[in-house]
Amino acid sequence: MTRRILFVTLLVAPCLVGCDGSNEGPPPPTLGEEVDRIGRPAINTALTDPFNLYGGGGQKDATQNGYNASADPAQWSAGFSSQLRYNLALFDGLDGQCGNQVAAPPGVDTPARYDTLTSLLSYDALYLDTSSGTCTTYLAVETRLLGSTNTDCGGRTPSYDVMDPTYSLLILGTPTGFTDTIDQDDTNPPGATFPFLGAPQ
Asked: What distances in angstroms separate CA 114 from CA 87, 106, 117, one per listed residue?
């Protein structure tokens, strides 16, 4: 007769109550520097310093990192509006026609042309209209603030292609018309239920 011995390893969890017997758990961890807010994808990457012109001490992505680490919303505009305005002008001219970018006032051919869009985009947060039950369009609420008549709730889901409407608005002034030809991660699309994760690779 062969004996089989089963070894069981017990994993002891850390105290879920105070280790001194109290009902209080361990103190919460100390949070470090904010790394990325990513309220609106691509805005920081494309508009604060895409060509690394303002990087401190030659450090690559220093401007983007500084924008992400800024916890004070007042500084998002005050500290980075000049960079956003400059790069909005670059995108505005990519189709060979300046002044057709979304929110560009007609007849204004000075840097003030980009003030409205700079002000809107520098505040790194998604806008969501909770009174609407139609939710299909990225940047819908933002474009409504700029004069669009859509009734979409805005915001975004993980399956939205956020790049095409972003670049379309910045280059052509319309929510469609430009495509980067990439609609989603075709090898690992996001799931349909929270937390919207794709299958492990």
From this structure: 10, 11, 6
Residues in the chain: 201
Tens digit of each residue's pLDDT (9 = 90 or more) over 30-78: 877 767 777 888 888 889 988 888 766 667 788 888 888 888 888 888 8
188 CB contacts (<8 Å, ≥6 apart)? Answer: 198, 199, 201
Query: How far apart, in whole angstroms, are the C-alpha atoms of residue 19 and residue 93?
Result: 63
3 state SS of 170: helix
Sequence-distant (6+) residues with CB within 8 A of 32 are none
Residues whose CB falls within 8 Å of the CB of residue 77, separated by 6 or more in sequence, listed in order? 118, 119, 122, 123
What's the CA gap between 22 and 41, in Å, rounded?
Answer: 44
pTM of the model: 0.75
